[in-house]
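Annotated sample (chain length 181).
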Amino acid sequence: MIAPAEFRQLMQFLNNAYPRFTLEPETIEVYYQILGDLPVDLVKAAILQLVTEDSPWCPSAGQIRSCAFDLLDRQSGVPTAWDAWAEVTKRFGTHGHARLPEFSHPLIKRAVDGVGGWRTLCMSTNAVADRARFVQAYDMLVKREQAQSRMLPAVRKVLELASGKMRRALEAEIAPPPLSL
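Output written by the structure step:
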């Protein structure tokens, strides 16, 4: 979480980088609501990255948040879909269909499971279709993980509360009526 004084300094830097843009106190509060849960150094790095992209427009809080997570993604070690598929095909030769291999990232195993499992992939005769299905499944899993990690804490809390209410409503609706004896 960024301390308010540090955040004001970041916003002053942003304001100075875009002299035609004036950050009003209400705007700074909105930026803080969107960026305040992130580490200060990450927000600084994202702002610096966006300022160097030579846009005449001040980046929105959402753009800064997105850039911050993009910077984290580059360092996270999550392989691209093509690198993940290359790892899978390499394991075909080293493990065969009988031994389930270890993968460098858990998302690779989840994608393999999502397209039918290790044995199914090993026994398939249509590598082109398998690759397409794997890449699609892997990309979907990566996007889902990113969406989950990028979610604002306030949004996550609302979703948790809403899912709990929905679950209770469904349970009440599904529960059979009491027996009258």
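Annotation: Residues 127-150 form the longest helix (24 residues).
Annotation: The mean pLDDT is 90.
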